[in-house]
Amino acid sequence: MKDNPVNSMADVKRRFSTVSNARRCSECREEALGRCPECHKGLCQDHFPKQQHSPCAEHQMKIAQDQVCYVCGTQVYPDQWSLSKTSHFVDTFTCRGCGRYICNELHTQRKKDEVTITREGLRGHRYQYTVRYCDLCSPLYRVGGLKGLARVIVTVGTVAAAAFFYFHP
Ligand SMILES: [Zn+2]
Ligand SMILES: [Zn+2]
Ligand SMILES: [Zn+2]
Ligand SMILES: [Zn+2]
Fold first, then answer.
1. Counted domains in the chain
2. pLDDT score of 146 more than 90
3. Is residue 98, in this structure, part of any structural domain at all?
4. Which of 9, 121, 126, 167 has the most C-beta neighbours closer than 10 Å?
């Protein structure tokens, strides 16, 4: 008896949907356990580190010599890894305030962990980010570092200008 082509297509689809394509590692087709915060690809535990998947690995190679602490020039190695199927760690070695690379030993003035939970299918995934602030941004961390301060100044300036024109028509 001949296979009904419509039925067999449906079968293929059903077989695939047990672990849908979106939930597979983009490198090895294993079940994806995390998502790279940079390229947003689904990745398994082995391929989650940036050096283990493209395009992040190539990008990482290209900018390796630029990844230096802006204060002392020490090379830094941004990293991300998975501790388990549902907990992932990301350390970008950059200052949250100004976005520049800073070394861990000398020029990370303030360091804290920030945890975000995202739902991926039925699982909750825990991403722990290492948030760093440099010497300059550390006192300003409440407003978001130098960039945040610039925003605050712009906002205050706009409000002041508006008030000025309101009271001096
Ligand atoms: Zn993989
Ligand atoms: Zn990536
Ligand atoms: Zn440094
Ligand atoms: Zn900074």
1. 1
2. no
3. yes
4. 126
Q: Considering only residues 148 and 135, tell me which one the structure prediction assigns the higher pLDDT.
A: 135
78 to each of 7, 120, 129, 154, how far by Cα in Å?
49, 24, 11, 32
Output the CA 28–ligand 1 centroid distance in Å. 4
Answer for the pair 79, 86: CB distance below 8 angstroms, yes or no: no
Query: What separation in Å is there between the alpha carbon of 117 and the centre of ligand 4?
Result: 26
Whole-model pTM above 0.70?
A: yes
Structural domain that includes position 78 = 5-138
Please write the tens of the pLDDT for every residue from 32-67. Answer: 888 999 999 999 999 999 999 999 999 999 998 999
166 within a domain of the structure (yes/no): no
DSSP state of 101: B
